[in-house]
Amino acid sequence: DKNGSAKIAMIAISRSLEAFAFLYNHLPELEDEVLEFLADLSKIQRLMNHKFPDAMNFKRPGFDE
Question: What secondary structure does DSSP assign to 32-64, as a single string?
Fold first, then answer.
């Protein structure tokens, strides 16, 4: 199901945003590069939410039950 695949991608994007936020806070020498990744991931997240608004409601068998 497209919403199931989208949910997995959205979870990965969310975790990636958290990881890059950690890098941003701990590696000030890479601030510019990390900000670019954060901006790109945020844009992808917005597009995914627009394209698949019901994805996070999808129940993955064995994971969300």
Answer: HHHHHHHHHHHHHHHHHHHH-TTGGG---TTT-
Compute the distance between CA of residue 54 and CA of residue 38 in angstroms, rounded to an integer.
24
pLDDT tens, 5-61? 999 999 999 999 999 999 999 999 999 999 999 999 999 999 999 999 999 999 999
| Closest listed residue to residue 9, CA positions, set 54, 58, 45 | 45
* Separation CA 26–CA 31 (nearest Å): 9
pLDDT category of residue 1 using cuts at 50, 70 and 90: confident
